[in-house]
Amino acid sequence: MSQVESPSTSGRKASRVKLVVPCEIKGSKETIKVPVRDISLDGIRLVSHETHAVGDTLQVTLRVPTRIELSAEIRWMDHETAKSQYVLGCRFVHSGDSRQTLKSMLQNMASAIDSAAKRVK
To answer: Which domains does the chain carry?
Structure first.
């Protein structure tokens, strides 16, 4: 189930939604599959077992259900020692219509989730 964080309570421009979907990132080394922690129109939080540098640019590929590729700059990184993983806070570097495409994708997902929830009731 997704949870929405209001932009006014967090000081963000866009609401952030907790989201667990398949994602691939391509950095300077190789393409790896990583889980998504949450996403907004402005950025994404990813979990990786590989370290990355703040300022690096990643190519993020989401497949939900269609494929969307976005550039994202790593803004911060946190090491979760107990889990031997890194949490990457990334800001999207939108170009062309990528912001609108992402917005449409998230709206379609929300609509599909809402429809599925109504069928379960």
So the answer is: 4-120 (2.40.10.220)
